[in-house]
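Please decode residue identities from the backbone states below.
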């Protein structure tokens, strides 16, 4: 009894060559595009084998195998090149910086006082045992052509080390000089006759007087960035500011603490840059030097404080209450002394509010500017 063909016999099926494992191993190599293509060919070969397309599976499998081998070769080449470059660069860096970082003095120093007299030369040669003919060449008086003295390795090492230390000192001086003094306000509220302030910023050596301003005493002192301890002297008694933060010093004394941060003055720095740019743009002076000496700020000028605020500037329109029947967008007519002044609201929730009133013919306009900081 004959039967029809039911496909290839299971025993005659060629063995499965699992190229998928090889391509998954090659995925760890740096040649990523080749790995992805090899993985796609492996999956297609596996699918063709399941569909009994053995010829197509064999062809796709060979491609996946070849791409996997290429990926392995490229990966090994990249790793080998990286190792060679890394160790070569490290050895060069170590050889160059060894003398600079070595702070131990050399065993035999070659920098000696140059002899200037014949007797000194003979005495030095006899003491060091270099009076033989095969010794180092003689040093000519007032000559700089002594190659053995100025070209030795330890002399070069000392020169490199000295250059390294000078570079470090320059960096330290630049870092110290970059700290800018910031105007800091000290305020004492309360009844008093004389109020002074002193702190770690002046080593507690002197007392800076505070100027009386209406109901409080104010002083503006230029302080460097960082933390500073201070204390008020009110009518001859050292007193703490109850509204400020306190800290205990190493000696057990309780003082007030103020922290001067650069971020607190970023707005003022930006305004200063804007004003300088606008001044340069509006300047009608011809370019070129004028040969004038710059104005030098005297020490007594720094102790001067700003003048008192005129009382008419305290009457800010935006601070006045308007009636219920009034339109909130309409403000009362301002006085002429209130015009063209910049008013600022205390910074809250990271927003700074500025306002200014101007007059155009018979109309007055008050502008508010909200600026996040």
């Amino acid at each position: 009894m004959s039967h029809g063909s039911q496909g290839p016999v299971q025993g005659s099926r060629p063995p499965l060559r699992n190229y998928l494992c090889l391509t998954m191993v090659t995925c760890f190599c740096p040649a990523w595009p080749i790995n992805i293509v090899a993985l796609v060919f492996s999956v297609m070969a596996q699918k063709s084998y399941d569909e009994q397309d053995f010829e197509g599976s064999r062809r796709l499998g060979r491609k996946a195998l070849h791409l996997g081998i290429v990926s392995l070769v490229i990966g090994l080449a990249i790793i080998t090149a990286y190792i060679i470059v890394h160790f070569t660069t490290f050895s060069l860096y170590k050889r160059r910086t060894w003398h600079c970082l070595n702070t131990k003095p050399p065993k035999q120093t070659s920098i000696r006082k140059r002899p200037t007299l014949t007797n000194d030369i003979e005495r030095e040669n006899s003491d060091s045992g270099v009076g033989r003919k095969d010794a180092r060449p003689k040093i000519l008086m007032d000559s700089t052509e002594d190659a053995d003295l100025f070209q030795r390795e330890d002399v070069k090492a000392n020169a490199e080390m000295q250059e390294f230390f000078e570079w470090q000192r320059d960096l330290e001086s630049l870092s110290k000089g970059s700290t800018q003094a910031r105007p800091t306000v000290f305020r004492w509220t309360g009844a008093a006759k004389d109020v002074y302030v002193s702190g770690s910023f002046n080593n507690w050596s002197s007392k800076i007087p505070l100027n009386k301003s209406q109901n409080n005493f104010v002083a503006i002192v230029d302080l460097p960035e960082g933390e500073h301890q201070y204390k008020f002297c009110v009518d001859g008694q050292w007193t703490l500011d109850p509204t400020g933060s306190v800290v205990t010093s190493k000696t057990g004394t309780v003082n007030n603490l103020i922290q001067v941060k650069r971020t607190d003055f970023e707005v003022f720095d930006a305004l200063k840059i804007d004003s300088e740019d606008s001044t340069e743009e509006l300047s009608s002076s011809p370019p070129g030097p004028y040969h004038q000496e710059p104005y030098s700020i005297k020490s007594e000028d720094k102790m001067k404080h700003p003048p008192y605020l005129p009382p008419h500037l305290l009457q800010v329109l935006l601070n006045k209450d308007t009636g219920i029947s009034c339109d909130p967008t309409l403000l009362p007519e301002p006085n002429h002394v209130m015009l063209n002044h910049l008013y600022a609201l205390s910074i809250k929730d990271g927003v700074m509010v500025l306002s200014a009133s101007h007059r155009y013919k018979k109309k007055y306009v008050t502008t508010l500017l909200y600026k996040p900081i």
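Observation: The two ends are 95 Å apart (CA to CA).
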